[in-house]
Design a protein that fits this description.
single chain; two-stranded antiparallel sheet; about 400 residues; four-stranded antiparallel β-sheet
């Protein structure tokens, strides 16, 4: 059976591939995945495509077919197998029970369709045309252009998939209340009697996520030189695209940006930096300025870059400790949603929020957070303006 496995690519980067029954990479799948890697797709995206292709090749083995044997009926059987687990060639006398959501099935199918389109455009594999049609004519009878032809999704001679995949409607972004944010931060470390008690590293991590709206991967990929502090002006963090984090932390989209931060976050970073120096981090990784900010402190290899799994383990600890005081199923990404919501409720223009979050297009921000400004009831949760104003120049964002 086909197997998806992690491998180390040149440059000590982790990636994924699909193995066949002989435990060797399946050439057609690996060529497509290599195209994604060289085209700048993130490791997580490559992993998602690899998982989809792995399931497709598993299905092909069950159907005793090769990927070049694809037909509309075979692909339809694949969709059904994804959704219900029904083996190819099986006739059910009752309705199938769904095992996966329609959105997940569409995601897997979209990856496989991209695989076929790649092999058609790269090698002229005509089997792909069984899953695609050529776009309609741009002109009607008599040589006149059809009404609203310029609004067509598919132009003349453009390939369009026979199986249309639907994009799930955006859900309301889950957010914390300010009190819940404070619970998470104080659950990591508190300051009393002139000293910090607990994990300053963990408090800094969650405080940075909350105050900047960064993704977890962007935060874990920070190096000490990215914190620009102590210059007398407003401190800030530079988001710098890198590809050398050993656990794949990276900047999504590869676009740099600058995020201004509060004096409180600057002081918390300074405290954490002093703790690292006291533990000898500067001697282990000179110059420390070029090393990762978030590293192992108490467990694992000393000062090795922190793994995302360790952050999620901390989330689990906090959830068990505080129970109903924190939302069920919360993740580090909730801080990003809360950050964007806070800024919008405080009156920040949506194009500024777009730049701060690192979205390429303002429509992405509108689709995800456009409902915020219309939901005045959220304002009763807390004084959102004061909450966002606590971040010194937090609404500013420069590229």
């Amino acid at each position: 059976m086909a197997l998806v496995t992690a491998v180390m690519a040149p440059g000590n980067q982790r990636t994924w591939t699909v193995l066949g029954a002989d435990y060797l990479p399946i050439d057609a799948a690996e060529e497509f995945l290599e195209f994604l890697r060289t085209d700048g797709f993130s490791p997580n995206t490559v992993r998602s495509y690899a998982q989809s292709l792995g399931e497709y090749f598993q299905f092909l083995e069950l159907a005793e077919a090769t990927w070049r044997d694809v037909t509309i009926s075979l692909f339809a059987a694949f969709r059904r197998w994804l959704a219900t687990g029904t083996a190819p060639g099986t006739v059910m006398l009752h309705s199938d029970e769904a095992m996966r959501s329609p959105a997940t099935v569409d995601l897997r199918c979209a990856a496989v369709l991209s695989f076929y389109r790649f092999h058609y455009e790269e090698h002229g594999e005509e089997c792909a045309l069984r899953l695609y049609r050529v776009g309609g004519r741009d002109r009607g009878d008599g040589g006149h252009r059809e009404l609203l032809a310029h609004l067509r999704r598919y132009r003349r001679n453009e390939l369009r998939p026979v199986f249309r995949t639907r994009r799930a409607a955006p859900r309301l972004a889950p957010i914390f209340t300010p009190d819940q944010v404070q619970t998470v931060l104080d659950g990591c470390a508190t300051f009393s009697d002139g000293a910090w008690h607990g994990s300053v590293r963990d408090r800094l991590l969650f405080a940075t996520l909350h105050e900047t709206g960064m993704r977890l991967g962007e935060c874990l990929g920070l190096q000490h030189r990215d914190f620009v502090t102590g210059a007398g002006g407003t401190p800030y963090i530079e988001i710098v695209p890198r590809d050398d984090h050993p656990h794949g932390a990276r900047v999504k989209g590869g676009h740099p940006r600058r995020l201004y931060i509060s004096d409180d976050l600057e002081r918390l970073y300074g405290e954490y930096l002093w703790q690292l120096c006291d533990l000898g981090a500067a001697e282990v990784h000179p110059p420390l300025d070029e090393w990762w900010v978030f590293v192992n402190v108490n467990r694992g290899e000393p000062f090795a870059p922190l793994r995302p799994e360790s952050v999620y383990a901390k989330v689990g600890q906090l959830s068990r400790r505080f129970g109903e005081s924190l939302p069920e199923g919360w993740t580090p990404h909730w801080f990003r949603h809360t950050h964007a919501t806070s800024l919008l409720l405080a009156g920040a223009p949506i194009h500024v929020v777009m730049r701060r979050l690192g979205h390429r297009h303002v429509q992405t921000t509108i689709d995800r957070y456009g409902w915020v400004t219309e939901d005045a009831e959220l304002k009763v949760l807390a004084d959102w303006r004061a909450h966002a104003a606590s971040w010194q120049r937090a609404e500013a964002a420069t590229s």
